[in-house]
Amino acid sequence: MNFLRRVFPIAGLVMIAASLSGCNILIPDVAADSPARFVQETSPVFYQPPGVDPRRVRPIPDQPVPQTRELYKTQFHQTYGLPVTNPVHAAMYGELRDEDFTLPSIPVSRVQPQFLRQEVDYQTTERPGTVVVDTKARFLYFVEAGGKAMRYGVGLGRDGYAWSGRGVVQWKQKWPRWTPPAEMVSRQPDVRAFSAENGGMNPGLQNPLGARAMYIFKDGQDTLYRIHGTPDWQSIGKATSSGCVRMLNQDVVDLYDRLPAKAEIVVM
């Protein structure tokens, strides 16, 4: 009995060693340290089409590295792969439902960036709530506290039809009716159908006063000049009208909501 207890463990070890002999775990792989084998196993494999001699293939010349990235030259200095328009502007000038009308979106990518609505630093002696129109730069500033102002791009009247000075926005109106003054009717007979005696033009998307109008008075008298919206967004930054201050419809809605009653206005 003692003899069997001694024999069986030894026989088991012999059988296990025999079964593992095929794995060569007891024999070191000395070829793994061979540099030639290492190069053979790790060398890259290149695609060689049949019939093509790689020694006769002309290499592609090195391309110069660009020193500046101006693939999309915008006010945001964006580069390839990034949007070329500011998503904030897209939201500000998107389609807008306003009372009974829907203002169409404005293609902001076709408007010069400086004429889009933006808050800027603006040092002035004018009180907050005052409107300042810079006719040379074609900007309208709504003065805010803390040396800031909301700046809008505007279109202005042609030389000879412009007005300048200090006045008051006597009253303002949503979706106004357009009634051209008698002087305009005499110069442009085609607008006679909208004269005062004919009741003017109904409010709407094609109305020259747009979505809002703010009427400028001086010394209690109507100057006949207005701050108003316009459906002609391409006129912003230009001088083509009969003297009024034109704004993008989305901008004039924004200004209308900010403007206090009887706000002062300076046109210079």
UniProtKB/TrEMBL annotation:
PROSITE patterns: LD_TPASE, PROKAR_LIPOPROTEIN. The active site is at H228 (proton donor/acceptor), C244 (nucleophile). Residues 1-21 form the signal peptide. Keywords: Cell shape, Cell wall biogenesis/degradation, Glycosyltransferase, Hydrolase, Peptidoglycan synthesis, Signal, Transferase. It comes from the Bacteria. The keyword Hydrolase applies. CDD domains: YkuD_like. Pfam families: YkuD. Pathway: Cell wall biogenesis; peptidoglycan biosynthesis. InterPro entries: LD-transpeptidase, LD_TPept_cat_dom, Transpep_catalytic_dom. SUPFAM superfamilies: L,D-transpeptidase catalytic domain-like (SSF141523). Residues 129-268 form the L,D-TPase catalytic domain. Belongs to the YkuD family. This is L,D-transpeptidase. It comes from Rhizobium croatiense.
